[in-house]
């Protein structure tokens, strides 16, 4: 049976990878601080920091099968997420979700804040 791997995210922003196998092997890898900083910035912007609603937006992805031992699998996916444009993709999804029912002025301000956050990452 392959290793099962999952990603912990807040509103589509990944923050941690964990992998486990049937033999009980398990390994967890937090992504670098820029991902958590993005979560914190968006939570503050949306007024969710320290609220139950903030906690409600955390979720693990469905387990997916992958090859390799849990440590190697978790570390490989964490590196792929950190190296790739995933941060930018997650920010785009988050902004689309956030701006769906917003006015033009709110959208412009939200995009400016998102762009400032993104410019601090390797993706941009």
Fold topology:
Elements: E1 3-10, E2 13-20, E3 26-30, H1 33-45, H2 52-56, E4 58-60, E5 64-66, H3 70-83, H4 86-99, H5 104-118
Antiparallel strand pairs: 1-2, 1-4, 1-5, 2-3
Helix pairs in contact: 1-5, 4-5
Explain what the structure shows.
There is one protein chain. By secondary structure, the protein is an alpha+beta fold. The protein has one domain (3-118). The chain contains five helices and five strands, in the order E-E-E-H-H-E-E-H-H-H. The protein has helices spanning 33-45, 52-56, 70-83, 86-99, 104-118; strands at residues 3-10, 13-20, 26-30, 58-60, 64-66. Strands 1, 2, 3, 4 and 5 form a five-stranded antiparallel beta sheet that branches. Helix 1 runs antiparallel to helix 5 and helix 4 (86-99) packs antiparallel against helix 5 (104-118).
């Amino acid at each position: 049976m392959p290793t099962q791997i999952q990603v912990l995210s807040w509103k589509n922003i990944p923050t941690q990878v964990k992998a486990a196998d049937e033999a009980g092997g398990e390994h967890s890898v937090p992504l670098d601080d820029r991902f958590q900083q993005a979560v914190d910035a968006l939570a503050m912007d949306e007024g969710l920091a320290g609220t139950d609603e903030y906690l409600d937006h955390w979720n693990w992805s469905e387990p997916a099968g992958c090859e390799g031992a849990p440590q190697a699998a978790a570390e490989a996916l964490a590196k792929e997420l950190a190296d790739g444009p995933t941060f930018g993709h997650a920010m785009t999804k988050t902004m689309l979700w956030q701006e769906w029912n917003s006015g033009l002025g709110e959208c412009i301000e939200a995009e400016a804040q998102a762009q400032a956050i993104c410019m601090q990452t390797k993706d941009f």
